[in-house]
Design goal:
This protein has 138 residues and is mostly helical. It has 4 helices and no strands. The radius of gyration is 37 Å and the shape is rod-shaped.
Length: 138
């Protein structure tokens, strides 16, 4: 059989096998080959087994592709949640810094000299616990 024969129906394959047998053994004729039902049945059984295996493999591939797509979407959701949480944290930390700076300026104006306000600014990064919580949600 040639590559161009791919995709043809079962009768076509039978005829192609017969043509190949004719070229392989010139002493046998097409009628003699057709008269051997046990050999044809063997090929039919093999082709059926190959078809079943092909269907099984296609189904496995479909399930695997679906699993990969679900995993990709899950990772995308987690990444999006982490970016949103990080942006919110950075915004809140910046607002805290502005509030502390305004508070310091107000105190300095009231006292009339430089003042040091000892308050730790909010963290701008996600903690390990926050990252673990986001990952466990997704």
């Amino acid at each position: 059989m040639d590559i161009k024969d791919f995709g043809m129906g079962m009768p076509y394959y039978r005829e192609a096998m017969l043509r190949n047998k004719q070229t392989d053994s010139s002493s046998e004729t097409a009628e003699q080959v057709r008269k051997e039902p046990e050999e044809e049945d063997g090929w039919e059984e093999k082709l059926k087994k190959w078809d079943e295996e092909l269907k099984r493999i296609k189904e496995e591939n479909r399930r695997e592709q679906k699993r990969i797509e679900e995993e990709r979407l899950r990772k995308k959701r987690i990444r999006k949640k982490m970016m949103e949480k990080l942006a919110l944290k950075q915004y809140l930390a910046r607002q805290d810094e502005i509030r502390q700076m305004n508070e310091k300026i107000a105190i300095e104006r009231a006292v009339g000299e430089d003042v040091y306000v000892e308050k730790a600014p909010l963290s701008k990064s996600l903690s390990a616990a926050e990252i673990a919580a986001i990952c466990s949600e997704g």
